[in-house]
């Protein structure tokens, strides 16, 4: 096995998905995992699966048992990033529900003590986001969505970020720690 990689999952959230994907595509040694909804959403924001595949490996949510999660048990990944993450995905993670590729990845990362960096789409009572087509819109997350975001902050091996800039900093810091630990 080569040195451990970064696993990155996209869910069906469009909240700053363009910025997240653009940053992700600058990274080396990263694998992308897509929920079924993410496959639909990336197209709405002008990305194609074929173009992404030219740059990085892509795993899709097509099998009931989520076979790729076994990579965590083999030390294949040093970090799991879930960005952006829908309120649905956050709620499932908080309740321990692992019924999709992305929720299974989060669960297995935690069970293997692999640090996770999570960027929930619902981080404040009022937020500006970009709709498909580029229009800025205001959204108002529900109380239950904000409670899910708050609860996931308490999970072991999980760091929550609240902006794209914070996401980029956290990923870069984590990559630096991994690089130093490997002696590279």
Describe this structure in words.
The chain is of the alpha/beta class and 184 residues long. It has a single domain, classed as 3-Layer(aba) Sandwich (Rossmann fold), CATH 3.40.50. The protein contains seven helices and eight strands, in the order E-H-E-H-H-E-E-H-H-E-E-E-H-E-H. It has helices spanning 17-24, 36-44, 49-53, 87-95, 101-111, 143-152, 164-182, and strands at residues 5-10, 30-34, 58-60, 77-85, 116-120, 127-130, 136-139, 158-160. It has a six-stranded parallel β-sheet with strand order 3-2-1-4-5-8, sandwiched between helices. A two-stranded antiparallel ribbon has the order 6-7. Helix 1 (17-24) links the parallel strand 1 (5-10) and strand 2 (30-34). The chain is globular and about 45 Å long. The two termini are 16 Å apart.
Task: Report a brief summary of the structure.
This protein is an alpha/beta fold and 184 residues long.
List keywords for this structure.
alpha/beta, 184 residues, 7 helices, Rossmann fold, 6-stranded parallel β-sheet
SSE inventory with pairings:
Elements: E1 5-10, H1 17-24, E2 30-34, H2 36-44, H3 49-53, E3 58-60, E4 77-85, H4 87-95, H5 101-111, E5 116-120, E6 127-130, E7 136-139, H6 143-152, E8 158-160, H7 164-182
Parallel strand pairs: 1-2, 1-4, 2-3, 4-5, 5-8
Antiparallel strand pairs: 6-7
